[in-house]
Amino acid sequence: MQTKRKVWYDRKAIKREFSEGDLVLVVLMSKPNKLAVEWKSPWKIENKLSETNYV
Question: Domain of life of the organism in this record (predicted)?
C-alpha cells in the first residue's frame, strides 16, 4: 500500500530547487493543531546544505 501511494504522489509531485539569494515562504509546524500552521515570509536562502535542506 505504501508503494502505491508513493508512486501516485511522485507522479504529481513538482520538484523545486532554490538558489542562494532566493526568497521563500517558510511554514512553522510548531502549533499543536496541524490546521493552524504559521507562515513566515519572506526568508532568504543563504546556503544549500543538501537536496532538501536550506539555510
Answer: Eukaryota
Task: Report CA 9 to chain centroid distance, whole Å.
Answer: 15
Beta strands 38-44 and 23-28: pairing type? antiparallel
Residue 52 forms part of a structural domain: no
Query: pLDDT per residue over 5-44, tens digit each?
Result: 999 999 999 988 899 999 999 888 776 777 777 888 899 9
**Which H or E run contains 8?**
helix 2-12
Q: Is 39 inside a domain boundary?
A: yes
Q: Is residue 55 part of a domain?
A: no
